[in-house]
Prior knowledge:
This protein is mostly beta strands. It has one helix spanning 9-23, and strands at residues 29-31, 37-40, 48-52, 56-62, 71-76, 79-86, 105-112, 123-127, 130-136. The strands form 3 sheets. A 4-stranded antiparallel beta sheet has the order 3-4-9-8, with no helix packed on it. A hairpin with a 3-residue loop joins β3 and β4 (56-62).
Amino acid sequence: MNALIRWDPFKEMDDLQSRFTRLFGLTPARTENGGRELMTITEWAPSVDIIEDEKEWLLKADLPEVSKENVKVTVENGVLSITGERKFEKEEKDKKYHRIERSYGNFLRSFTLPDGADGSKVNAEFKDGVLKVHLPKGEKAKPKAVEVKVA
């Protein structure tokens, strides 16, 4: 029995891109079944928690063994970005590495600012390997109680 196989002209392009990606040691893009890119994988990305209360959004990023000088927080065009680098220790002659599982290199995390956030008043602090980014709410985002009079 002969089966018909649907030819996809772009599959060859994807295969070629995957080969170049492996050749140059880059990380591939994650795709769903249809082949549409969901997200691009970087060398590593710090874990992030986002917490909201009545005054602000608080973003906590785990950055172990990253120095404060190697982290940059920016807000531009409604996007909060955290970039930086975790550097690999120099291999010393008297040490022999048996396993290296932790990721090193550059990272980038970007987040679209929520409605009502005041991007001009972002404040960040870095302590004990945790970056805390405080994003205050604007006046529009704060809930207000309105008294309704019934006649």
